[in-house]
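Morning F.,

Quick status update on the modeling queue. The single chain you submitted on Monday has been processed. Sequence for confirmation:
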Amino acid sequence: MKKKFMRIISVVLCIALLTSGASFGTFAARELSVTAQEESVGDSIMKGLYNTLNVIVEGLVRSICAIYVNPRDWQSIDEYDADEIGFMAGRDTYQTSAAEGNAWKLGYSKKSIIPEDFESGKYNLGRDLLNKYAEGVYDDQCIRVAAIDDNSGEGLVILGAIDSLGVTSTDIRSMRKAVLDYCETEGIEVASINISATHAHSALDTQGVSTEFFKKLAATFWRNLFGITKTMSGLENAESFKQHFINVSADAMKEAIANMEEGKLYFSAIDMSEHFKDKRGLISKEDLPDTACLKFVPASGKASTYIADITCHATSFSASNGLVGSDYIYYVDEYIKNADGGNFIMIPGAVGQVSRDIVVDETGMTEFEAKGSGARTLGKLVGEKIMAADFSTELSPVINVKHRELFITPENSILTLACEIGLVNNKIFYKPGIIREYCMATEMGYLEFGNEIAFAMFPGELYPEVFWDDEITGGANWDGTQWPYDNLSTKVEGVTTYAASLTNDAIGYVLTDNNFAFMGHIIGEGIADEVLSVGKHIGSYLVTEYLALIDSLED
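Structure tokens below.
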């Protein structure tokens, strides 16, 4: 009992030190930020203080993780079972051309994931650590999904997105299990299931990050200690919503499979840069990536389906907004539906800190209308671009898809702590040894259409410079070193590849190693807030794994 008591005291002390240390670092940085712009000595001092603060806080949080009682379902990595956990490797063969009998098939489905008892007022918006309940619905929050096949017999592919800030790999794999069980019963071959998060900042919380942080921090220690699995009081709606959106998402995938029909698939690269900007001011408009858009036209003459990889944050609503919505995605969908009856799916590109660049005149609008004016305006502009695009490039009926399973050891222990206290449910494993190290299971993928266009599917919020080379940011960096990787979009011969963020997992920011800085939003100068990242080397790690993945395509 004495040992348990000392562990509790240690946790409290560590949290107190963490809070005071972070506060001091924040104050120091703000005081130094002025002189940092005036002289290089001040800049060096500021960086030194922040780097030191990062080491101190990481050490403290790592200590908390070592003391905190782990959930009882955490396993040794030796006990890992890929099939049981829901990983899918993709197709076995790489097709270099369409075989006789190949033909495009696609089915679409869209479903709202807002629960029927939403008016109870106990559902959280998924924006930050604050326990913020949604006050109402502005438009909708949906899953949109397409089931696609080339009739090669290698298995169909599912590609879709959920309006949300992020979805964990644990929940994606739960959806997969439900769909695969259905398909096994129906005798349907499935090679790959991929679900992204649109990164809408105004959607209901699909991860758990916005539900009673301090309550979870205090109570989960005891719950883990005594193996209590009953839902924590006050979190019943949050738990039921998680299962609800998993079930609805799985149903949407089944419906998309049932809706499959033959047709033709076309492609267009669309320049949306006049409506977007890099908030850091590091990437010029001409260097922002194009929107890759697929268009499926059914032979039956029914509605077309558009799948667009869009590099722009869905952050049109203010931080104080209490209404649920899917931001501009809803209004792109609405525009396309009104224009030709078409269906729409938005896959997030390497969004980094790319946001809208539009002017909205709110004259004459009601307060309610003004809340969503930015989302409506951007959605209409993006919809117009898609509908006016040249879709004359017809893609041959060939799909190639492969996935690589990854086990990441977080350098930033805040992520490990978040999993320990149940803030998120990413699957964590420990490595055997005297000093216990943790790793989390995630994945990345490569999905190619027609031997011409592909999507590189990353599990985090990817920054454009990671994928398209940091020349587009002028080589901007924090630590003075160079980013050693060049443009990844042309690594597969004859194929143009586009980046897809937050696909099949949400592991935080992914940017170049040399631009990692703790509490970056406070520092300014275009540095990301790396508290929300796996760590400094996640960018190079994922790029290395991606290169290994595409090297294995024809193995």
